[in-house]
Amino acid sequence: MPLYLCLCRDYPNVFERRLAAREAHLAGSKVSREAGTTLFGRAYMDEASAMSNSRPKIEVPAGQIGSGTLGSTMIYRFPTIEEAWERIKSDPYWVQGVWDKDRVTVNELAYLPTDETLKLVN
Q1: Which among 66, 75, 84, 117 is placed 20 to 30 Å from 9, CA to CA?
Q2: Would you indicate the residue range of the signal peptide (predicted)?
Q3: Which CATH architecture has domain 3-111?
Q4: What's the angle, vertex CA 92, arms to CA 37 and CA 116, rounded to 5?
């Protein structure tokens, strides 16, 4: 089954919105992981913006996202790219306006025979 790399850049200045939607986003991600359709998911950061004063500093628990978060990246396993897009568009970060809908990309990864045996990356 194909694998899809999804890059979901956040709109500017939506850190508070991201935090508000995070619990629902993580719950949906857990369901996807258990179903085997999400192999990897993680917020990505810009260290320079995290260290600058250009974004609000909000205290979050250690090991969790910070105000330097720029977006999310996921690897999905679905039969079609349309199903990968459906998963993206049902995510609370999409629905609640965290991800910049004009900048989200979903691309199929090159196939390798080992793709069928890939497991979730924690």
Answers
A1: 117
A2: none
A3: 2-Layer Sandwich (3.30)
A4: 10
> Rounded distance, CA 43 to CA 66, Å?
10
Determine how many CB atoms are found less than 10 A away from the CB of residue 60.
14
**How many Cα atoms within 13 Å fall on the side-chain side of residue 106?**
18
Give the span between the Cα atoms of 24 and 56, in whole angstroms.
Answer: 23
Reading the chain (122 residues) residue by residue, the pLDDT tens digits are 999 999 999 999 998 999 999 999 999 999 999 999 999 998 888 766 555 544 455 454 544 566 678 999 999 999 999 999 999 999 999 999 999 999 999 999 998 887 777 766 65
pLDDT for the residue 69: 85
Contact 42, 26 (CB under 8 A): no
Which residues face 49 on adjacent strands?
A: none
Q: How many residues does the chain have?
A: 122
